[in-house]
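Action item from last meeting closed. Structure (378 res):
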């Protein structure tokens, strides 16, 4: 599973609040021109791709889908500000969506407007992780001034307008048809639908409360509630993203000792013709054992060349920073020299390589396989 989390925002203020938590961000350009920044978040150093979608559900849906296809992430988080709809939700609090309502759906009839609700629930697995982060409260430890905002887990309403009235027809519509919504904003429905179309991919909307959607938005903005609220949302999102990566994501079988059955083994039978050879296949959890079989040094050299190509692709995809990529290439060069000199030191060089690429699952697995092959030569 990928260790990368996509984080999307609608406004530059929100974007900067997340970017301030990133280390070594590098620009990643999508072929259609969308710019993402790829870097690392948190002391654990998990990878994040940050993108700006602009305001509105439609652009949010398109660019969320684009990010999902481009990065195949472990999860997608949408982070920003929103207006509170309930008195118990205070300025600066954080709302995590249990579900998202697209509240503008309806049909106009002779006797009035009839609601046609659409909604998307946050996946059970992601919701469980979010609730765990809420319970621990440790996410707020580094916030300015030592503040500890409350976090609410409940529905969010997403429409196509800025909602800034407690008495307008739109406000009444939301109260009548979406009475349990805690907050209102303009992008979550698009992101939630994109996540729904991508199957089991966890999508979580995290909003900091910057106004009360009551006609006083300009006053609250003048009191700098937007930057304060988005810092709170970004802090919670960073903690949640780390937990989602550590948790392993939906669909991952529990390993032995983690409350589930031990992983079972599957035998794959393969036929290879000509010069083709088949290595380890399938999805593996826990220890992997390779049968020892002595392969010619020419095959090991070809494997090292393949690793170099994978390194280049990982670097261009933003999965490896330039320094790590250069260091990994140097270890491949060292391994090639060891091979040419009879194999002494080959395993050590490959182990150093694996340590450098451990964050990229495909590369780490390939390096592990090469170590097993190298041991068979000794």
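Sequence:
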């Amino acid at each position: 599973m990928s260790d990368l989390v996509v984080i999307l925002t609608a406004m530059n203020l929100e974007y900067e609040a997340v970017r301030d938590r990133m280390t070594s961000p590098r620009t990643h350009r999508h072929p259609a021109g969308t710019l993402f920044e790829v870097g690392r978040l948190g002391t654990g150093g998990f990878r994040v791709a940050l993108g700006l979608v602009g305001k509105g559900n439609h652009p949010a849906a398109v660019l969320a889908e684009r990010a999902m296809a481009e990065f195949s992430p472990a999860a997608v988080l949408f982070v920003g500000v929103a207006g509170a709809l309930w008195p118990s939700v205070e300025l600066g609090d954080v709302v995590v969506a249990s579900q998202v309502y697209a509240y503008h759906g309806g049909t106009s009839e002779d006797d009035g407007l009839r609601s046609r609700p659409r909604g998307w629930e946050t996946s059970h697995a992601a919701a469980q992780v979010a609730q765990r982060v809420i319970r621990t409260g440790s996410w707020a430890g580094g916030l300015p001034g030592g503040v500890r905002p409350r976090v609410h887990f409940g529905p969010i309403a997403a429409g196509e307008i800025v909602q800034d009235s407690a008495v307008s027809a739109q406000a009444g519509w939301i109260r009548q048809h979406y009475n349990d919504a805690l907050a209102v904003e303009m992008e979550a429905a698009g992101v939630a639908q994109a996540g729904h179309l991508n199957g089991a991919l966890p999508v979580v909307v995290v909003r900091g409360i910057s106004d009360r959607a009551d006609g006083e938005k300009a006053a609250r903005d003048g009191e700098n509630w937007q930057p304060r609220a988005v810092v709170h949302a970004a802090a919670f999102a960073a903690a949640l993203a780390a937990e989602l990566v550590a948790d392993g994501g939906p669909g991952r079988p529990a390993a032995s000792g983690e409350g589930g059955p031990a992983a079972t083994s599957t035998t794959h039978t393969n036929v290879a013709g000509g010069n083709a050879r088949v290595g380890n296949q399938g999805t593996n959890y826990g220890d992997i054992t390779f049968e020892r079989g002595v392969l010619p040094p020419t095959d090991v050299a070809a494997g090292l060349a393949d690793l170099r190509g994978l390194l280049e692709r990982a670097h261009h995809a933003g999965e490896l920073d330039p320094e790590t990529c250069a260091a990994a290439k140097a270890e491949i060069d060292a391994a090639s020299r060891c091979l040419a000199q009879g194999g002494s030191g080959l395993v050590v060089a490959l182990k150093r390589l694996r340590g450098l690429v451990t964050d990229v699952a495909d590369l780490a697995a390939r390096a592990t396989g090469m170590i097993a092959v190298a041991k068979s030569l000794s």
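Note appended to the action item: The chain has eleven helices and twelve strands.
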